[in-house]
Amino acid sequence: MHEYSEVSDEIICALGAAAGEDAVLIAEPMSAHTTFKIGGPADVVVEPSTIEGVVGALNVCAIAGVPVTVVGNGSDLLVSDHGIRGVVVLLGKNCGNVRVEGTRVVAQAGALLRDVALAAADAGLSGLEPLWGIPASVGGACHQNAGAYDGTTGELIESLTAYIPGRDLPDGSREKGAVRTFTRDELGFGYRKSRVASEGLVVLEATFALIPDTEASIRGRMDDYQRRREEKQPLEMPSAGSTFKRPEGYFAGKLIMDAGLRGARVGGAQVSEKHCGFVVNTGGASAADVSALIEHIQDEVRAQFGVELEPEVHRVGDW
């Protein structure tokens, strides 16, 4: 445990009671939990094996006033080299159940989009094919309204169940959070945004409404999307996916290429030679390297084209 940890032994015991003693890890390196393979240690990591355990761990943190960061597959995160203070709640394969109910697929927040799409294909249900190569969990995909090839997560969501963080009360105490189910119309999905993100909701489970089709047709489309990704994207190197949001009227990758930044490096971080919209970890890159390279890219594109590039990658932790 770090000297500056905000998590007391009492809180750690409470987290163990809520999620299981084996689910609590101390000073866990976040590089093991991000697709960038970057990130210093979190004070405490909790990996509950049930949705009830997730809610219990979140309530422990809410009542104690301990900072909490929820991480799914870590595919759009840049975690500080100094790590994350407080508690990280991991929602991965531990909460990754997927089930088919008629023309709907119901998935827990930790399930990967890939596994949800495969389950849908097995059941002859279409709609998820454009998204199946996105390395996001269901929770992260709903948070970001992840999308690819003109398909988005939000347009397929029928409803989702989420944890609503508790509030500070007038007497100085804190209340527990609440669990509620939202319809798609209530979730404010837009380009890389949602009510999940703006209100700090924690997705627990999502229901996707899909369309029947033949398994052969569905898998054919999935193979085509995968082939296109492999041809254009640096899937063989650690990254956080597309580094920047698409600026209106432009493509970030082309702006970066036209600015002469293909292959530009800061330490172990590099603008991908294969697709300039990706910053990749060539080996041993630090979060500081990536952050400095992102700022350099923004400065050059602004100076040369007058366009502001907004990162799609979220910086989290103790910066």
TrEMBL record:
Swiss-Prot/TrEMBL keywords: Cell cycle, Cell division, Cell shape, Cell wall biogenesis/degradation, Cytoplasm, FAD, Flavoprotein, NADP, Oxidoreductase, Peptidoglycan synthesis
Name of a matching Pfam family: MurB_C
Reported cofactor(s): FAD
GO cellular component, one term: cytosol
Active site per database record: 192, 242, 312
Transmembrane segments: none
Primary enzyme class: oxidoreductase
Gene3D superfamilies xrefs: 3.30.465.10, UDP-N-acetylenolpyruvoylglucosamine reductase, C-terminal domain, Uridine Diphospho-n-acetylenolpyruvylglucosamine Reductase, domain 2
Single Gene Ontology MF annotation: UDP-N-acetylmuramate dehydrogenase activity
Entry's localization field: Cytoplasm
Cell division listed as a keyword: yes
Enzyme nomenclature, EC number: 1.3.1.98
Family statement: Belongs to the MurB family.
Function: Cell wall formation.
Stored NCBIfam families: murB, PRK13905.1
The protein, known as: UDP-N-acetylenolpyruvoylglucosamine reductase
Species, as recorded: Enorma shizhengliae
The encoding gene: murB
